[in-house]
Design goal:
- The chain has 102 residues and is of the alpha+beta class.
- The chain has one domain (2-98): Winged helix-like DNA-binding domain superfamily/Winged helix DNA-binding domain (Arc Repressor Mutant, subunit A, Orthogonal Bundle), CATH 1.10.10.
- The chain is built from 5 helices and 3 strands, in the order H-H-E-H-H-E-E-H.
- It has helices spanning 7-10, 12-24, 29-36, 40-52, 75-98; strands spanning 26-28, 56-63, 66-73.
- The longest helix is centred in the C-terminal third of the chain and has 24 residues, at 75-98.
- It is elongated, with a radius of gyration of 16 Å.
């Protein structure tokens, strides 16, 4: 059961990124950083990991002369996040079944 929890997604920041993208569809780098309350370097590092795994993709655009980078979930990212959430739900249900006080 615990083995079904994807280690790439299980990290708190990466889970936050994927959850925000699932909920919002598309977010720019600054919005992700501000919502997650992390540094640029920390966010960039986690986004690189997610990109390398094929879970997110980015699009660079300009607003006026200012560059803007937007991130979205890939179909693979959506599939793996849903599988992760299903495994987490199953684990929680199993634990609650063993101890109804939880």
């Amino acid at each position: 059961m615990i083995g079904d929890l994807d280690p790439t997604i299980h990290n708190r920041v990466r889970l936050g990124i994927l959850t925000l993208l699932l909920k919002n569809g598309r977010m720019d780098f600054g919005s992700l950083r501000d919502t997650l309350e992390i540094t640029d370097g920390n966010l960039a590092s986690h986004l690189r990991t997610l990109e390398r795994e094929g879970l997110v993709r980015y699009e660079k655009t300009f607003i006026g002369r200012r560059p803007r980078t937007y991130y979205t979930l890939t179909p693979e990212g959506r599939r793996r996040l849903r599988r992760y959430l299903k495994a987490l739900r199953s684990l929680l249900e199993e634990i609650e079944g063993e101890d109804p006080k939880l």
